[in-house]
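Entry 14. Ran structure prediction on the chain below.
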Amino acid sequence: MAVHDGTASSHSGRHQEGHQGGSHHGCAICGYQDNGEIAHIEAVADTLNNSPDNLIFLCPNHHTKYDLGKPSSNITPEVVRAAKLMKRSTRQRIMRHEANATKLFLGVTSLLKGIEQKLKKEGTSGDLAQVYMTETRSLMERMPDLIANASEAATADKDLGEVGAAIVQQIPVRAGAAR
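Output, structure tokens:
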């Protein structure tokens, strides 16, 4: 069991904020969000391990139960490690969603800038301008589906690869030109 050695309170505010965020601002065991503490999974007095992998955010009650290792407590090292792994997996999944959404919006922004540059270069006269505007509207109408694809890819632990290919297929081209 981890033995409280007084170092948990010495962690910087930035360090604590990182662990709170990693636990979604709540105790990794019960989710209590009013206050919490950074706990060592393996006692720092035994391991000298103060790395983020050895730290977890717990409410005061679970931190105390874990540190004291009461036999009546279900807060074992295995439970704490499982909670840490679950929180890490959730955070990675959230980060994949954020990354895929960012890639999607950067891709769409790039396409729209390309359309804008083509319009400036080729002029905004008549039919060609209408084609580009139609393609732009069509791309914007497809955004909900592209966002859903990006979300599905993240949920399946995939990068934006297939969605990126779908975006490329949406690039407006001049009539008769090959993609």
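The two ends are 62 Å apart (CA to CA). Will compare against last week's run tomorrow.
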